[in-house]
Structure formats: structure tokens, C-alpha cells
């Protein structure tokens, strides 16, 4: 029996499952095979619709291509009928602004309402608007009990207004990327209180000129396990997530942390950004944030955040740096304009630290850089080093500059001080000789640990 005959003998339900694993464009191409395949295509429950190909064409063809795309989607949804269950609906489109090319907002709204009424489980919307003075505003009623995952990437064209009685009892994943909100409406806080099983949130504040968050936010959830957020405007922040295991935070200078409860945290990524809208720079007291993440096992810190920590704990606010008893992996991003002043204090307060990662070794060298740095070694040659007492077993250096004297000197300093070191992983940014030759040259560097080995990573 031929392969084609074997496939044709499968029931429609099985063929529909196969087509659902393809993109909608690929699945639609099978409808030319026979009338039966056209009927099977109407049973797919995963729709992945993308009009970006039509926009990339010549300008004179875009309007016609948009009409064809609109006709295809509308016809397909009508063919399926209102009773057909949709599992996942992905829509990546361009919306018309000034009667040029793109889709009509009202038409897009009707498509989304169609799949919501049919019990969609995973809704992923990415809507792009062309430049114009009056971006369209889409009104969506996402109050559906079937939604498990909701992803919105809608830029300036979408203003979210939630009804007071909204309830999404099955929602577990929420992604809000550059979605605009009313100033007086803390949408994320509201959803946290109305989604009892929510486990993951990705939130990126809209880049529009109008602020999209209230001045003070208080977020809490006992079910949340992963949280990734990016703030643009200055806000006062309170977090209460007792079961959170992953936390990623990127915020601008001026944000203030009030109460932070993250007792179950395993991994944290902290990024502090300079303001980009003309605000005066001011240092922030990070004591509540640092105390809130002190139980973390893996910690990633950007270069500016390191600078801000020194103002919190030793200069401006003179707070006491907490102990990091559970910390086993510390990752540091380095930049030439930022120093390592706080780094020795973090290492001393991390008695169980085993892995130390540097994303580049460039940093500002000064007397206050501490004994982690090899700068001004002669002034403190006889002082004890935090590295000597450290239990670090793995040292990983990314973007290592081969033949750079400062990088080589810093590497020698690490090797001379880390007595428990077992593996040094190096990823070179300018490697111009075979890895084997470079690996042999590293073996001649004196090491405090006899068991230390080198590993060159791509």
C-alpha cells in the first residue's frame, strides 16, 4: 500500500490533528489536494494567522493582499461555524490607521470575539499599527472562563479597560508586552486578585508618552511562580509572592521599593536603568528589595545595579547588607563605566557561593573596587582577600578579550586567590587562533588550586 493510500485511510479527526500541528498557511495548502482535504482543514483547532508577508510586498500590492488575507480568515471562521472548538489562536497582523493598507480594526475585533466565544484556551495577539495621529483602539472582552494563556503585544493601538467583575479562573500564563492601560487602573494587580491559579506573568510597560501605571502598585499572589517585569515610569512598588521561584526586574532610577516578600525565590535577575525621559537622576534605597531576595540561589546583577547597591549599603543610606546563605551562583554584568565596589561584600556574605560568572571583565578601576579587582594591588598586598576565603568552584568569563593585558591580569588575579577553584570556563570575544593553542597557553598561569582546569566554550 502506498504512503498516500495509508494517509487517506486515516479518519478525519486524526488528519485534523496532524494539520493542527502545522502553520495555518501550510495546513490551508492541503485543501487543493481534494474536496475531502478541504473539509478536513475546516476541523483544525490551532490557528496561526500572520499577514506580515503581505505588508512586505510592494506598496501598490499591499491593499489587495490585505483584502485577500481578510477574506481568507473570515471565510475560514465562517466555514468552521460558531460551535467548533478552538484550542490556540495566534494572530500577527497590521491594523489600518489612515485608510492606507492594513486591516480594519472592527474586522479584527470580530475575529477575536469569534474565537473567544468558541472557548479558546491559548490566545496570542500581536497587532502592529502604521504611523498615524489617531491609532485605533480595540475593545476586547477577555472575560472567558476557558482561557489558560493570554498574550498581548499591541503597542499603542490597544487600551485595556477591565470590568470590575472580571474573572479568569483557569488563567495560568499572562504576557502583556507594551500594552497601554488607563492611568488609574492597575490591570496586573486586578488580574492577580481575579486569577486564583495564575503561575506566570511577563509584563513590559508601554513606551507611550502617557504613563501606564499608577504611582504606587501593590501586587500579591500566592499562586504566582514566575514574574518578569519592566517598568519605564517611576513607581512605588510592593511585592508579596511567597511561592515565586523566578523573578526578573528591570526598572528606571527613581523607583522605590516598599515591601518585598519573595521567600521561595530560586533565581533573580535585576536590571537598573538610567532614566531616558529627562528626569533627574536620584539614588534609590534598595534595602527592601535586597532583603526580599536574600534567600535566592542564583542571582544576576547588571553593572548599574551594582553601583546602586553601594549607595544603599555604604554611602547614602548606610544600610546593612544581608547574608545570602543560599546563594550558589552569582552572575555579574560588567561595563567600563561601572565599578565593582559592592562585589567583595556580596562574596563575603555568600558563604556557599560555588559559581561566579562575569559577562566581560571591563570595569571602572579605582581604590574602592575591592580585592576582587586586581587594580591598585600594591596598596593592599598584605590585606586578606574575600576570594581566598571563598568556596567558588566554577569561574566563568564571557566575552573574554584574548591578548588584552587587563583581562589577562584580572584572570591571573582570580587564579591566584581562588583556592577551591575546579573549572575555569572562558568564552573569547576576539579569538583569532585555534582553541587548542589558546588552551595550552592558559595552562602556564599559576593557580592557587591544583585541581583547576580550563574549558574553552564557544
From TrEMBL:
SUPFAM superfamilies: F-box domain (SSF81383), RNI-like (SSF52047). Residues 4-40 form the F-box domain. Gene3D superfamilies: 1.20.1280.50, Ribonuclease Inhibitor. PROSITE patterns: FBOX. InterPro entries: F-box-like_dom_sf, F-box_AtFBL13-like, F-box_dom, FBD, FBL60-like, LRR_dom_sf, LRR_FXL15/At3g58940/PEG3-like. Pfam families: F-box, LRR_At5g56370. This is F-box domain-containing protein. It comes from Capsella rubella.
Amino acid at each position: 500500500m502506498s504512503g498516500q493510500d495509508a494517509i487517506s485511510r486515516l479518519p478525519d479527526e486524526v488528519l485534523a490533528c496532524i494539520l493542527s500541528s502545522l502553520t495555518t498557511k501550510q495546513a490551508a495548502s492541503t485543501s487543493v489536494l481534494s474536496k475531502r482535504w478541504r473539509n478536513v482543514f475546516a476541523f483544525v483547532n490551532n490557528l496561526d494567522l500572520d499577514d506580515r508577508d503581505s505588508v512586505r510586498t510592494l506598496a501598490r500590492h499591499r491593499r489587495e493582499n490585505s483584502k485577500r488575507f481578510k477574506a481568507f480568515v473570515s471565510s475560514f471562521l465562517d466555514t468552521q461555524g460558531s460551535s467548533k472548538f478552538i484550542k490556540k489562536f495566534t494572530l500577527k497582523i497590521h491594523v489600518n490607521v489612515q485608510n492606507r493598507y492594513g486591516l480594519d480594526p472592527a474586522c479584527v475585533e470580530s475575529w477575536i470575539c469569534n474565537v473567544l466565544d468558541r472557548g479558546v484556551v491559548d490566545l496570542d495577539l500581536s497587532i502592529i499599527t502604521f504611523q498615524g495621529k489617531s491609532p485605533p483602539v480595540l475593545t476586547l472582552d477577555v472575560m472567558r472562563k476557558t482561557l489558560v494563556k493570554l498574550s498581548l503585544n499591541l503597542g499603542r493601538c490597544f487600551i485595556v479597560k477591565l470590568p470590575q467583575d472580571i474573572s479568569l479562573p483557569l488563567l495560568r500564563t499572562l504576557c502583556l508586552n507594551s500594552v497601554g492601560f488607563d492611568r488609574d487602573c492597575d490591570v496586573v494587580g486586578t488580574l492577580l486578585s481575579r486569577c486564583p491559579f495564575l503561575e506566570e506573568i511577563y509584563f513590559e510597560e508601554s513606551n507611550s508618552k502617557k504613563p501606564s501605571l499608577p504611582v504606587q502598585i501593590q501586587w500579591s499572589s500566592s499562586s504566582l511562580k514566575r514574574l518578569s517585569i519592566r517598568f519605564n515610569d517611576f513607581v512605588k512598588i510592593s511585592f508579596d509572592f511567597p511561592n515565586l521561584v523566578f523573578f526578573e526586574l528591570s526598572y528606571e532610577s527613581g523607583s522605590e521599593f516598599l515591601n518585598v516578600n519573595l521567600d521561595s525565590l530560586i533565581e533573580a535577575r535585576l536590571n537598573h536603568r538610567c532614566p531616558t525621559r529627562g528626569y533627574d537622576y536620584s539614588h534609590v534605597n534598595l534595602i527592601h528589595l535586597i532583603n526580599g531576595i536574600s534567600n535566592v540561589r542564583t542571582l544576576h546583577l547588571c553593572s548599574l545595579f551594582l553601583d546602586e547597591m553601594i549607595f544603599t549599603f555604604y554611602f547614602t543610606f548606610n544600610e546593612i547588607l544581608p547574608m545570602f546563605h543560599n546563594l550558589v551562583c552569582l552572575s555579574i554584568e560588567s561595563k567600563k563605566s561601572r565599578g565593582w565596589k559592592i562585589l567583595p561584600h556580596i562574596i563575603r556574605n555568600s558563604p556557599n557561593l560555588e559559581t561566579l560568572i562575569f559577562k566581560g571583565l571591563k570595569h571602572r578601576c579605582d581604590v574602592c573596587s575591592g580585592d576582587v579587582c586586581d587594580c591598585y594591588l600594591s596598596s593592599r598586598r598584605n590585606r586578606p582577600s574575600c576570594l581566598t576565603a571563598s568556596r567558588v568552584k566554577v569561574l566563568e568569563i564571557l566575552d573574554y578579550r584574548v591578548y588584552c593585558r587587563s583581562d589577562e591580569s584580572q584572570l591571573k588575579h582570580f587564579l591566584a586567590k581562588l583556592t577551591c577553584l575546579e573549572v575555569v570556563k572562558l568564552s573569547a570575544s576576539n579569538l583569532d587562533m585555534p582553541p587548542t593553542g589558546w588552551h595550552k597557553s592558559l595552562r602556564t598561569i599559576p593557580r592557587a588550586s591544583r585541581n583547576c582546569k580550563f574549558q574553552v566554550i564557544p
